[in-house]
Amino acid sequence: MATTKKYWKSFDELAGTPTAQKLAQNEFAEEIPVEDFLGDDNALSNSNTSRRDFLKYLGFSTAAATLAACESPVVESIPYVVKPDAITPGVPNYYASTYFDGNDYASILVKTREGRPIKVEPNDMAAFNGGTNARVQASVLSLYDSARLRQPMKGGEAMSWGDVMSSLRSELKKANDSGKEVVLLTSSIISPSTKEIIAELGNQFTNFRHVSYDPMSYSNKLDVWQNILGERALPSYRVENADLIVGVGADFLANYTGQDVAKAYTDRRTPGKDMNRHIQIETQLSLTGSNADKRIKVKASEHGAVLLHLYNTIAGMKGGTSLASANLPEEKKTMIEGVAKELANAGSKALVLAGNNNFAQEALAAGINRMLGNFGTTVDTNTPVYLRQGDDKAVASLIAGMKSGNVGGLITWGVNPAYSLNGFAEGIEKVGVTAALTDRIDETASKFGYQLPVNHFLESWGDYMPTSNVYSLAQPTIRPLFDTMQGEEVLMNLAGIDGSYHAYLKGFFAAKVQMAAPMLSWNTVLHDGSAEVPNMYAASEAMGTIDMNAAASAANNDVKSAGEMEIFFYQKTGMGVGNQANNPWLHELPDPISRVSWDNYATISQADAERLEIATKANSMGAYDGYTVTLKVGDRTLNGVPVFVQPGQESGTIGLAVGYGRTMVGKAGDNVGVNAFALMSGDHYATSAEISEISSDRDHGFACIQLAHTMMGRKIVNETTNDVYMTAAPQEWNELPLFETFKGKMGPDKVNLWEDHDHETGHMWNMSMDLNKCIGCGACVVACHLENNVPVVGKEEVRKHRDMHWLRIDRYYSSEESFAADEEKVEEMSGLWGENGSLGGFGELEKASENPAVAFQPVMCQHCNHAPCETVCPVGATVHSKEGLNHMAYNRCIGTRYCANNCPYKVRRFNWFNYKGNEDFADFNPSQDEYGKMVLNPDVTVRARGVMEKCSLCIQRIQYNKLEAKKAGKPIEDGQFTTACAQACGTGAITFGDVNDTNSAVYAAKNDTRAYHLLEEIGTQPSVFYQTKVRNTKEA
Amino acid sequence: MHYEAPIREPLIIGDKSYHDITVDVARPIETAPPRSWWIVFSISLVMFLWGVGCILYTIGTGIGVWGLNKTVGWAWDITNFVWWVGIGHAGTLISAVLLLFKQKWRMSINRSAEAMTIFSVIQAALFPGIHMGRIWLAYFVFPIPNQFGSLWPNFNSPLLWDVFAISTYFSVSIVFWYVGLIPDFAAIRDRAVRPVTKHVYKILSFGWGGKAKHWQRFEEVSLVLAGLATPLVLSVHTIVSMDFATSVIPGWHTTIFPPYFVAGAIFSGFAMVQTLLIIMRKLFKMEDYITIQHVEMMNIIIMVTGSIVGIAYITELFIAWYSGVEYEQYAFLNRATGPYWWAYWSMMTCNVFSPQLMWSKKLRTSLMFTFFISIVVNIGMWFERFVIIVTSLHRDYLPSSWSMFSPTFVDIGIFLGTIGFFFVLFLLYARTFPVIAQAELKTILKSSGENYKKLHEQHGDH
Questions:
Q1: Of A272, A274, A276, which is closest to residue A294 (Cα–Cα)?
Q2: How many CA atoms lie within 13 A of A32 on its CB side?
Q3: Is A746 helix (H, G, I), strand (E, B) or coil?
Q4: Closest residue of A to B331, CA-based?
Q5: pTM for the complete prediction?
Q6: Looking at this predicted complex, what is its ipTM?
Q7: pLDDT beneath 70: ranges in chain A
Q8: Start-end of CATH 3.30.70.20 domains in chain A
Q9: Contact A712 B399 (CB under 8 A)
Q10: In terms of CATH architecture, what is A563-704?
């Protein structure tokens, strides 16, 4: 019945009358008088559209068109014609992958939005190195670096991949036929499949060599451990088992063997009887040294002697054989003996870590660890770490070969030796065929015949074996942006292997990995990012012997050869070896210790600076200016090195960071700092360096974001010792300020001028910062920078103290030997003048100690529940939320900066310029770069000029998760999401959550006896709170 | 007729008739300006235009062209604002408060003092505008109906109180000033020969006829406006001081600020009046009306208010010590001995020590010395605001954020521009407006004029 339904327009049509049928033939039911009008010339000429009317219409339409054009430009967004299954606009996708750039290794999650990777996050399921440091966090911007090479080149001409590869193959063949060597020079390679490809490549040539090269070499350490492990690898350190850690020049929390030990270290920093103790003996104030319970300054040349003296003293106590007596001054010997005693007491629960790239020092450290019985407890010799592969001897012989003309073909991949390796650039000319697998025309590639652009790691497949029992995969998260090829695929092509690397890798996985670990499936490993595999390391019984006497005399020789000044090369926590020297986020990240951004410099002690009259000084706008000098090490010189006074630096030594001074890296990174590699040879220090050609005035400007360095005896970082923490009542070491009121003494959270906001219903977002776990590494700062589209403002603006970081890590030095002594000094002040007078006293407190205690404190918007900023804003642009947050309505802000003035924490950041449009910022602000702007987080507004901004506690994440929870119809679970900073923090120092959820971690943290609010006595009632820093001063 | 004791010094010197006063007051308007006027006017105009350029550069590029940073969010902008508002206090005080207290000596100076007030409030009002990051949205601060829903300004914010206080003060001052000008404009109108001039002054004088009714209304309006303006003298700077007093920043968070600011404002206002009038009486040959006695009276006010300011400074130091708050104590130690010690001691020297010299009759009746001190006081009062704003901000709670401030050429250019603008307005005023309230002045000629006083002495009451 239903199918016979008939629709009709009139009864005539229903009845089917002839009229209706006739009408149905016509297009229009009624005749339209077009012909009548247009056909009649007479009528047309008489119609009165006068000239006036014409002009009116013309005028109107012009005006209308003009008005329509006044609209802001329309940016077309094209919807998917066929939407990919995995992509929903507005919903991020996460892919597990692996980051390894030859230096840093991390198991990561890549966040993509609409197919674009926009953030790198740590992978909770990581089998090894789950934390992300600042460099890994920043790496996503390197993908969108417009300085990347976009197509293959030969001799400066762009060519297609087909042509360039066939040309290269034939040239290499010619070189091989002439009997010369073909060399592949790479960074450390830990990919089993790549190693196989390289082996295949080697089979193509009669005389082939693969040389691994690390710019910051660990080759001599590897030589030591090769004797012990039987394999060229470093041991794993089990810091979690160590009650006492002694670092001798080892910056193990930031830049060491590649194994991430920060989490294991901070897990043992929880105060209580299990808290570890950390002693650092070093030249340069490192990130690790800043976290130490006790820090001893020694010269760079004394590291070996220190280890030797430790060895001898412990041997004496344990009844072992002593070596030659250490060549050290008596007072240092006494200090070292104290350390040795503690080490002996700690028994097998101690760990000695030596820095540098020095055979003798590493041998002595290994010897001490072995003597103490640490092998098997804190030094794991069963799971070697492969992250450092560089071989100094092979590199030296390569350079010799190049210079003698024995190298016929040279392929470099992922290294820039013309920049970082002395003598390399001079040898290039004599090499017949040179091909650089590179991401840009850098210092090396520019001198090479072939420049072959390789994929960024976010565009690549890969597999890695960081340790003997972990296998991980990397997967591309975007199609290559440019006409680039994966490095492995280039090598496959040269080796004559057909197909894609992806296929090769899958084949390798099936054939080799699953063979060894049958329980693994490709999809599972790809999904999880990494997997544990059965330990591939076979402990070799036939260990080599190390000549300890030779080590002892080498250690003593260092001291003998020491000049008046020594130099120590280090890696900045942000820049590392400089693999991402064109990454503006890393340049803008202030060094955690010196707080200087956009620079490297020679650090010297105050005493030396005064002696040489080269002290840094702040100018009238609060920016530091310094002298520049020429540094001379052996026959190598480096001109124009700025000098920065660094508390904690041993007198008679200079510190200089590597990774800077690039000339061909890109607009952001070119000519930032000086190239320390130019002075370096193998080891990380030189026992003699000269300072000469001091500039006539302070001609170098530093972009140091901290002008004052001490806490002035104020209770900003609340601190106590582990003994006091365990024995005394909390009120004694974490005193809550009390106010006298008519109702009796009350805490600042109870004394109110205003009505309280309702914080009982709904969520109440709080954040806890554990100052014992914060090591100051700055990963959170970079994470915040990219999560929230914080502008990069460049050196000149940072110099003017206009850095835009929403989250900063304040670093304080003590003025006396400890912060407690600083506070005591303030308490003992009496009167204005005299010995204890406050006039002189505060002036003294401004000066940092020569060997200061250091404290780090991350500070972002404290989200005060009685916020000083909220009351003063004339337009209500900053208001309080019911959930304990302090909101910033950018659209409403008129930029009076009153809020920033009235903020006791000085966390508000003003948009002084139009950072996304002003040409002055075009070279480094990603939002001005055609590619760089693709990294912007689409969930966060890019702020306009003249607007105040600040930490929002990642409101975009809060809202997203609230909506998700609402859709799912269930409450938000604790830990379901967190802020960018908390997520990036590798040590778990930051806890974020809802304190109205009594099961949450942040609720527990808030009720911890260590919890306190910053500047509590002002009555701001912040939603962010800190956990008292506890130092372990008890000698083991 | 009001009787004045013979021992009082005459307020009008010389053998003056009503006509003489009219002629003397009208002379600058009716004669061509001398070369010196053109020189000063040109310099002022160039400074003004330079300032306009700097302001346009700021608005076009961003507040970043100033020397501010994340720690010091206000510096020269608000220093200049408070300085100019402070200067703007003397006029209303002279014309309103002294009117209510029946101080006759105000009559020869109130016109110019009030002109100064209005012109300096105009300078002051510039700064809250241009210091905004987004000046094009400045209307957000007004409680006007809008399409954003029920979106109002934040009535808790002292900055909003400023908006109301300044705009009220400015409008009341300008009305008060204008009302006083009406009979004088009429006098100029009546004397004018050129038709255009006559027409202009005719419009300006609102058809003043000099009838008894007119005079009665004039008196009443003046009294009412004086009553309205008097509380404003106290309220404006009180509210300006609350920008600082209601904050939590050590050095700002001080309850002494309202009276201290008001005293300081009067102090600086009178100094500026001295600066202007000492030059004007000479150039316009008005020594007979603006006498040494007037100068002395104002010097006494400067001395008294300067002492109040001095006591306030010392009280601040005492309270900082007495409070026991470490941040507060450090803030004041830092002011006196920190990196900006020179600003603090400039302020102390100029504002506290120099007015004390006025205890000497010889010095306070010396024109050269008065002129010198008036400049010194103005410099000192500028430093006072700089000290309060910059030295409090640059080192507050967390040493990690401590910073310094150094002005850029734009900061300096805008300040010079407002000085130029002020003098452009004042110089134009001096050639077009009757600079002495001659109608009012004539009311005391017979009681306080020198010749009449002499006659009175010789002939008694008839």
A1: A276
A2: 6
A3: strand
A4: A842
A5: 0.90
A6: 0.93
A7: 1-3, 29, 35-38, 43-44, 47, 70-73, 540-544
A8: 719-814+849-1031
A9: yes
A10: Beta Barrel (2.40)
